[in-house]
Specification:
The protein is α+β, with helices and mostly antiparallel strands and 265 residues long. The chain contains 7 helices and 5 strands.
Amino acid sequence: MALGYDEAASVKSFAEVEFSPTERLGGFAQAADTAVTQESSTEQRIIKQAEIDLLVSSTPDTQVALADLAKRLGGFVRDASTYERIDKVLYGQAVLRIPVASFEATLSDIRALGLRVQSERVTGTDVTEQFADLEAQLRNARAEEQAYLALLGRAGSVGDLLQVQRELSNVRGRIEHMEGRKTYLENQTDLATITVSLSEKPSLIAPTSDFRFVDTIKEALQTLVVAFQEIVRGAVWIVVLGIGIALPAGLIAWGIYRLYKHSRR
């Protein structure tokens, strides 16, 4: 039975409302059949995504150019970040959401912002069938909701009323879940996602001061003297500690030997 509960147990109570089973269920069956057989006019739905890695002359300037590009095309920058690594090179990343109709044109404009495209990956996921199935399920669920609303206004006993309310609550929960899923798919297919990674071209680091040969030799000699002093210091410590440990150990060993010889006599 389309109502989702035992018809045999409910016929008697619904009969008390004085409308026949055909009258009770006819509206629901007709609405559901109409929803199932209705031709879908769903357009093609494809989730488009791209990842592109650019070598650029200036990461901050390119970040600004990406934001301007997204705004000009009716999109936006969802996330953006800039960071510097130990190599002193400035890196960045930006995630753009762009109208899907401008996807290819946007990729072309992004490539033009870099000195070189280091890598690029484009993917497309066709969710047309999934979207069409979801729309059909929504139509069925809404038709079911209307049928329960009609029964709700004509239920006679308290038991009938509570049963219909429970079924109505269940179908509305399903509708909310499906509407949320539909909204997500619409967002993912209406706007393409492009993740742009940026890295600057490494530049030669200029010396911070003038090179002086004599001063460099002096610094090297000073370092050598300090190193020699540390070696001598270490050797002295080893000798002193060695004597300090070996002398008591030798005395103890000599004492044990003397006791052993004395006991053998």
